Amino acid sequence: MGFMCHTGDLEFEELIPWVQEGERLGYSTFCATEESGKDAFALLAVLARETTRINLATTIVSFYTRTPTLLAMSARTIDVLSGGRFGPLGIGTGGIGFMHRGHGLQIEKPLARARESVEIIRGLLTEGSFSYDGQWFKPQDFHLREGPSPNRIPIWLAGLGPKIVANAGAVADGVLANWLPEESLAEYRELIRHSAEAAERDPIAVQVATLLTTCTNPGDEDSLFAARRGIAFYCASDHYLHIADLCGLGDDARRVKKVWEERDFDRATRMVSDRLLEKFCLAGSPDANAERVRWLFDNHVYPVVYPLPRRSRMVEDHYTAIRRAAEWAWPETAAHPVGQLTTSGGTDQC
């Protein structure tokens, strides 16, 4: 089980001991996201020297804001700095708002861009000399100066829609979904199976993972409001409506989306129904939350705990989220790793 946060919410002197606490609790991976906070690879370089066991990953960095060659260089650098503890390299389009307003970029042809990025990154990480005649990138007889990576670094694609999930089955080592309820897992598995077999790949080797949004204190109204705010943010994106529809919650999500687009964010937050909250967030009783985590483990889905903290108790809530999730995942002891996660690249602690 992994964990993540919005890296801009914590200062370095707060974030480093928090990741060290996750390592102590038995988490396998810290996953650096990249929006408007800290540079993901700079942060992972620091953590490579401040941790000893935990894997360091990205979930996600955008393949529009960095070239595939730069992503391959960054992955190899962190892998060396950490003594072989980097991975997966999670990449995706990046959030629409962040890409449009933050970078001033349009998300064009994301499926083709994702495939091209994965194939170039993998080629540079595994081959001594690599050429690729792509739509956007055309490296010719190029190699990383330090040579191929000594380790097989899994590459995951972030996505929710059927096309990107199928794309991951065809070219990637895993797919990461922000929302993954029971209703959509069977669809994901079938999409991956079909596309992987068409590409003559083993579908079992494609890891399914999900972000596990976590309310830090379901008995506290401020905590519930923070959790609803996180869900409202995702309801505002068209990308999540397909999943809400599968769960019979499409109308709930669209009502939230309409008000969010009017920029009445507090009202949109209050409109997040209990059904939406329960479906897409760990916001129930300890037993209910533990059951949800066990369901993911039983179905070979890799969860990444994602705290939804109160602004007034930012640091405390980050600690609370990973400690409670560890108790739900490993009730016999919060410091006991769950087992082994097998990817097409080998075996990582899970």
Structure description:
Helix content is 47%, strand content 16%. The chain has 14 helices and 10 strands. It has helices spanning 12-25, 40-50, 68-81, 96-103, 110-126, 162-171, 182-198, 221-235, 241-246, 250-261, 265-270, 274-280, 286-298, 314-329, and strands at residues 2-5, 29-32, 55-62, 86-92, 155-158, 174-177, 207-215, 301-308, 340-343, 346-349. The radius of gyration is 19 Å and the shape is globular.
Task: Summarize the SSE layout with pairings.
Layout: E1 2-5, H1 12-25, E2 29-32, H2 40-50, E3 55-62, H3 68-81, E4 86-92, H4 96-103, H5 110-126, E5 155-158, H6 162-171, E6 174-177, H7 182-198, E7 207-215, H8 221-235, H9 241-246, H10 250-261, H11 265-270, H12 274-280, H13 286-298, E8 301-308, H14 314-329, E9 340-343, E10 346-349
Parallel strand pairs: 1-2, 1-8, 2-3, 3-4, 4-5, 5-6, 6-7, 7-8
Antiparallel strand pairs: 9-10
Helix pairs in contact: 1-14, 2-3, 3-5, 5-6, 6-7, 13-14
Shape: globular
Fraction of helical residues: 40-55%
Described by strand count, sense and barrel closure, the largest sheet is:
8 strands, parallel, barrel
Q: Count the E strands.
A: 10
What class would the helix/strand composition place it in?
alpha/beta
| Uncertain stretches | 334-350
β-strand amount = 15-25%
- In sequence order, what are the helices and strands, one letter per element? EHEHEHEHHEHEHEHHHHHHEHEE
